[in-house]
Amino acid sequence: MERVHVSVQRTAQGRFRATNAAGVQVEVGAGEDVFTPVELLLAALGACSSIDPDTVISRRTEPRSFTAEVSADYVREDENYLQDVLIQLAVELDDSADPRRAARTVERALAHAHGKTCTVARTLERRTEVRAESEVSFTSGAESAEN
Known about the structure:
Blueprint: E1 6-12, E2 15-20, E3 25-29, H1 37-60, E4 65-76, E5 80-92, H2 99-117, H3 119-126, H4 141-146
Antiparallel strand pairs: 1-2, 2-3, 4-5
InterPro entries: KH_dom-like_a/b, OsmC/Ohr_fam, OsmC/Ohrsf
Protein name: OsmC-like protein
Pfam families: OsmC
């Protein structure tokens, strides 16, 4: 078992910067110039679901285009949640590929990713327990002015 970790630091009200172990950062929050947390979740699902199909296709040929569109209904009632999540993979190959074989290959790879290797999809489907803990510390006004 491997523990993965991401640090999320507040940069302004409603704005955060997520940093992974490699130091790569992404801005998240409220505003038109950043991903919302829900959009980032859908992006993670789309990317995770695309890895296997991309690997299989790229072994044979470089796709002309490869896009995963991920959508969901955002339900805002007593509790906010997503439902009816849909991943639509659109791949364009050059005309030298056998179209039926290529379509089957993409379909199988997407099904394999969805059913076995895409951790994001499998986690969402499992309804994994999420625990939350907090720690609050206080600094006196004099100490914070010195720092």
